[in-house]
Amino acid sequence: MKKRAEDGSEDVYIKMSFQTTFTSNNKYFSWMFIFLLLLIIFGSAIVVSSIFYVYYRYQYFKYAKEKRQIKRELMKIKDTEY
To answer: What is the pTM of this model?
Structure first.
């Protein structure tokens, strides 16, 4: 077996580089566009439905409060009837 040279004159150096390229030839561009369009539509639907939910909840509580006040007034009138 040959001994290794101490001065490093017989050392071998290898330089490697890896390059990965992904090419789809715009095959998925239409699907990405459809996906983004659906995402925007569903996202805006969630926002609009949340706004309507909050609005109608506010309206319900407002009318429920008025109804409770009217009911209390009617109970006062009934109590003073006799």
So the answer is: 0.52
Length of the chain, please? Answer: 82
Integer Cα distance of 78 and 69 in angstroms: 14
Task: Compute the chain's Rg from CA coordinates.
Answer: 38
Segment 1-43, tens digit of pLDDT: 677 777 877 778 889 998 888 777 777 888 889 999 999 999 9
How many degrees, rounded to 5, is the angle at CA 74 between CA 71 and CA 78? Answer: 135
Whether residue 10 contacts residue 2, with contact meaning beta carbons closer than 8 Å, is answered with no
What ranges do the domains of the chain cover? Answer: 52-82
